[in-house]
Amino acid sequence: MATNVGDTSIQTVNLDVVQSDTYLATLTFTDSTGAAVNVSAWVFESQIRALYDSSAIITSFSFSQTGLATNQIAMSLTPAQTALLPIAASSQAGEVNINILSYDLKATLADGVSIYTIQQGAINVNPSVTK
Questions:
Q1: Domain carrying residue 121
Q2: Is residue 47 in some structural domain?
């Protein structure tokens, strides 16, 4: 996923997650000219909730830059975390349902004061078939 820094609009990115699987996405940050933006000193936070205004946090994404360029971060969930994501109950035999949850991605810049919501969207939770 590419994120253009300096653009004040929030990107809407919907994610597909399979319950009990590892989820991993690499985000790349560039400016309006396409040049890499060093985000190594930024702090990232992202929470998953049933609805955007729910008080309960289901789980949170983890972030790392290990082995990546200074303009990239890895955003991940462990199998234990994705197992926490609820699946909608099936209303008919053989029907596969998904549940849609909400998330956003916030970054605190190196100054420790500037906080921006970079990305938001829905998380489509799919059931794992193989047990």
A1: 2-126
A2: yes
Cα gap 119→4, rounded to integer Å: 10
Q: Is 109 contained in some domain?
A: yes
**pLDDT tens-digit profile of 5-59?**
656 678 999 999 999 999 999 999 988 888 999 999 999 999 999 988 899 999 9
pTM over 0.90? The answer is no
The number of distinct structural domains making up the chain is 1
Query: What residues form DSSP beta bridges with 115?
Result: 108
CB proximity list for 28: less than 8 A, separation 6 or greater: 1, 2, 3, 36, 69, 71, 72
- What are the beta bridge partners of residue 59? 48
- Which run of H or of E encompasses 82? helix 79-83
Is residue 22 within 8 A of residue 79, CB to CB? The reply is yes
Q: Name the β-bridge partners of 108.
A: 43, 115
Coil, helix or strand at residue 48? strand
> Which CATH number does the domain housing residue 61 bear?
2.60.40.10
* Cβ atoms of 103 and 120 closer than 8 Å: yes
Q: Does residue 32 lie within any of the structural domains?
A: yes
